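Sat 14:20. Reprocessing the chain from the morning session after the first attempt stalled halfway. Input below, unchanged.
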Amino acid sequence: MKKTLLGWAAGLCCIILLTACPSDDAPDIELSVSPTSVTLDANGIAEVYVTSNTTWSITSSDSWVKASPGSGSGNQKVTITETQSNPSSEARNAILTITDRTNKEVRTVKVIQTGKQSTPDNPDNPPAQSTLTVSPTSMEFTSSGGEQTVNLKSNTSWSVTEKPFWISCKGNGNGDTNLVLTATENTSTEKRTGVIKFASGDGKAVANINVSQTGATPALTLSIGELTLSAAASNNNTFIITSNLSWTVSDDASWLSCAPTEGTGKGTVTVSVTENKEQQSRSATITVRADDITKTITVRQDAAAQQPTLTLSTQTLSLAATATSASFNVTSNTTWTISDDASWLSCSPSEGTGNASINVTTSENKDEQERTATITVRAGELTQTITVKQDAAASTPTPTPTLNVSTTSLSFAASNPASQTFTITSNQSWTVSVSNAWIACQPSSGSGDKTVTVSVSNNNETSQRQGTVTVRAGDLSKTITIRQDAASATENEPGSGDNNLPQYSRKKKNNP
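Finished this time. Tokens:
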């Protein structure tokens, strides 16, 4: 029997622990009360508002005041009443404590009960009565909220005994003041109204302000205006609705569906489509409505893929040896590219879609042999080729070799001599050589007509020197005599020498 009782006790403890421990996924607890200080009116009554997302309970620090209801859940109005009048002429306070179900969140309300009014000693001169006025007595806020000021006049203490949840302000005070009222944003399209109630400390003077707030302007926006999809079936296409209204979604195609089809505020809608097996693209319209506002999305789905086709108007092209052009036609229902394997041939355009005429251009064939190339056209896995043949150039007699130079001699100064040039005129390849190391030519070989630059180093000797530049083309040759002045006595000093000769390539010969 003892073991049975112990087992029941252990099980009960586990149940209590599991019930008391909140889930890791539970939302954060919210608990607030407004106002946080009230003065009981002449009837011994005041009201506060509890805002919460969980259960809560209320306890009182004194027996002369109670709250109803003493517990609840969510948002509720709580009425505070006195259970006995104040026997003293002095005001007294009590504290109401509101706690959530876990006792982690605690809020308090200070309750003020005014003292008993004493009988005046002089009936002919009674104490002044409490006064309380507010101006203006009504005001309207825009949907975006904001602040407005109330002029409150009183000859005693006062408190706010009731107000809408969307209005915040100072809860109590003494004497005259400019009281700032703050309204939160109204995200609803509906206008909202309420009353702010004030009472003097003795509850004998009261005043009210009627407040209202306009509703938000109806709004409806969509994250996209059109949706383009492939021919394949898909169900992961989405768009976002942003609105402050309730909305519905509809479409005009059997191959398309949306989910959800209705909602409120902001929501994500998934668009699903079946496979398009037709050879033509198709479109549909999604319509979103919120009251009198309508927005649409155009949905386009690609056509089913076609089997590619590719044909060419010819398989061969024969062209003359001269620079020329020809054309051929591509017939296809898809995209294609063109390439070739010869530098002397080009095709334009080199890519495209569908049918097109292609222009083939060749450069002149100067060789005495026919040449060939291949043009390749590809469309997906399809390939077609054209063989291009270009005639050989007509044979021409070998020209008689010629070689001439523009001068037969060049003269240079002894010191810092400037470079000079001569011109080679030839129909052959040629080379240039020099007789002495102090002479340099650039270039030292070439073909056809060219200009050759001749440079010499400083002549540090006191006698004139002479050399030659020889140009050879096959069996032909031309010689240019190079003369350089003798150096003066001042130039022939230690440190001077043949050190200003540019480092051109040259063929050297022994000095004569």
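DSSP finds one helix and 45 strands in the chain.
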